[in-house]
């Protein structure tokens, strides 16, 4: 709710022209992006628990982020066939956000414009919320790893509690690894899609 309220507040401030020098907003967005990237690295670097668990895992766990990426790409391809999104690169970049709405929407806004950035923000928030709501059904009908694959980059933080509840404690390491790997890959994949 706080994310949606912050977004709505930004829209209202924009409509009221609260920030008269709109050219500065792009620069501020760039610096926020750098700060977010630093905080992601700091969070991963400081979490000794993650590093300990990574040393103990079987590398087959890396198949989960791989299947999440492949499943997302296939879903985007089906969407493109049915609805015909105007720019294919934008559509794939939105999907490549993997639920990491804060970072992906800023990068996409800088490259493709505010409208596509807003779509990226909403699409990736919906992915996170859908994982939170549908985790019990996904685990029941598609297996314990399905909510992890569906959650994308969010599985190391915001969706981790529901994954632990419905997928069991034995899948916590898989969930954290999935989230960390996809969090690291999001900016790389979006940059690759746009040829940056």
Describe it.
- This protein is an all-alpha fold.
- The protein has one domain (22-41, 51-194).
- It is built from 10 helices and no strands.
- It has helices spanning 2-15, 22-46, 48-56, 63-83, 88-95, 101-112, 114-142, 146-151, 160-167, 172-194.
- Helix 4 (63-83) packs antiparallel against helix 5, helix 5 (88-95) packs across helix 7 and helix 5 (88-95) packs antiparallel against helix 10 (172-194).
- It is globular.
- The two termini are 33 Å apart.
- The mean pLDDT is 83.
Distance between the termini: 33 Å
- For this entry, what is the oligomeric state of its chains? single chain
What fraction strand? Answer: under 5%
Number of strands: 0
Tally of separate domains: 1
Q: What order do the SSEs take from the amino end to the carboxyl end, as H and E?
A: HHHHHHHHHH
Q: Helical region count?
A: 10
Major sheet: none
Low-confidence stretches: none
Give me the secondary-structure category: mainly alpha
Shape: globular
**Helix percentage range:** over 70%
Radius of gyration: 17 Å
Average pLDDT works out at: 83
Q: Features of this protein?
A:
196 residues; 0% strand
Please outline what is shown here.
The chain contains 10 helices and no strands. The chain is mostly helical and 196 residues long.
Topology:
Elements: H1 2-15, H2 22-46, H3 48-56, H4 63-83, H5 88-95, H6 101-112, H7 114-142, H8 146-151, H9 160-167, H10 172-194
Helix pairs in contact: 2-6, 4-5, 5-7, 5-10, 6-7, 6-10, 7-9
